[in-house]
Write a sequence for this structure.
């Protein structure tokens, strides 16, 4: 890249809506869900390597329980570039701590990018071009640049970013000031957003100079920044659980958005598999499946010798993984997290988490 960028992969998520395949020790980012054979984490690292210029400038922030798994998945990642949170406190502490560590090593003018470990990107060339444009903007201005995804449907599963005043063109990208962030809307509101042409989906990807965000955190989230500056990672137990959107992005006046179209999916639940792999087939079959009058369904089995047999099913997800079989209507996959809360409360089943 013309404009150097230190990419950070946020790899501490649980991926609960992909249970039972995704579990505590083997969350979604460690899985291969697109048929490529590479885990989502490995695919994310691979496409960011050329952005970083090699493993020495690629960083990963993860949780204590997943650190060993990250090392196994990314054996070339330098030990000093792996930041391990002692406990999960959402994305604001992760971003704040990592940004401070990068500023200490490389300086406040270092351009940093944060990227979730579990996204799917179709057009990597377009993706890298937009990252270069974002880095150019962050280099030239006091800017926290977020990548917005141009919506193709009124989704209620994503947060939205409203474009404000146009800031100009940086590289090949049109840039806008952010007018506001909106949490996941209802269907009617999402349709209104889509019709205006001014809204993007919030991808959760950010690019900025380290010093800019440190200064903004000092203003808007000192309860997170100050303990980290004074105590480092030892401060984690006293930090509030806050997302970076809530702690900073919804409050700062330095937020900019680049509306982008590079083929993106956040792989939020089992229905994402259908979006990636369906084609013109009756079902998505990642299993040996014998079916009668079954259509519009997603069928997954982890074991090669396991067979899923269905009769007369429409629009369901069937997942077989080790000691659990999940059967759920596609429209209700978001409720898997609620089932996991019940399982967590019952000592007979906690080993299934």
């Amino acid at each position: 890249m013309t404009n150097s960028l230190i990419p950070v992969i946020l790899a501490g998520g649980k991926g609960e809506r992909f249970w039972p395949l995704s579990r505590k020790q083997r969350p979604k980012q460690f899985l291969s869900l697109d048929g490529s054979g590479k885990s989502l984490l490995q695919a994310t690292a691979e496409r960011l390597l050329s952005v970083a210029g090699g493993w020495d400038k690629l960083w990963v922030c993860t949780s204590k329980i997943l650190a060993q798994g990250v090392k196994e998945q990314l054996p070339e990642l330098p030990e000093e570039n792996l930041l391990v949170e002692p406990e999960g406190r959402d994305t604001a502490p992760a971003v704040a701590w990592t940004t401070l560590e990068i500023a200490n090593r490389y300086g406040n003018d270092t351009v940093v990018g944060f990227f979730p470990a579990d996204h799917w990107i179709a057009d990597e060339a377009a993706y890298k071009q937009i990252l270069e444009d974002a880095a150019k903007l962050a280099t030239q201005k006091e800017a926290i640049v977020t990548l917005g995804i141009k919506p193709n449907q009124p989704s209620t599963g994503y947060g939205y970013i409203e474009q404000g005043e146009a800031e100009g063109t940086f590289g090949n990208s049109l840039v806008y000031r952010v007018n506001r962030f909106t949490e996941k809307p209802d269907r009617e509101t999402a349709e209104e957003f889509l019709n205006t042409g001014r809204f993007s989906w919030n991808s959760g990807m950010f690019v900025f100079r380290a010093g800019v965000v440190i200064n903004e955190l000092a203003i808007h989230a000192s309860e997170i920044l100050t303990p980290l500056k004074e105590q480092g990672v030892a401060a984690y137990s006293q930090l509030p659980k806050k997302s970076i959107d809530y702690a900073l992005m919804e409050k700062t006046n330095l937020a900019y958005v680049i509306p982008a179209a590079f083929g993106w999916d956040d792989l939020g639940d089992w229905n994402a598999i259908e979006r990636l792999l369906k084609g013109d087939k009756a079902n998505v079959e990642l299993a040996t499946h014998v079916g009668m009058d079954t259509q519009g369904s997603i069928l997954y089995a982890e074991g090669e010798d396991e067979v899923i047999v269905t009769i007369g099913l429409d629009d369901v997800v069937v997942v077989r993984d080790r000691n659990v079989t999940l059967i759920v209507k596609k429209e209700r996959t978001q409720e898997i997290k609620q089932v996991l809360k019940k399982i967590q409360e019952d000592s007979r089943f906690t080993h299934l988490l």
User: Anything to note?
Assistant: The first helix runs from residue 40 to 52.
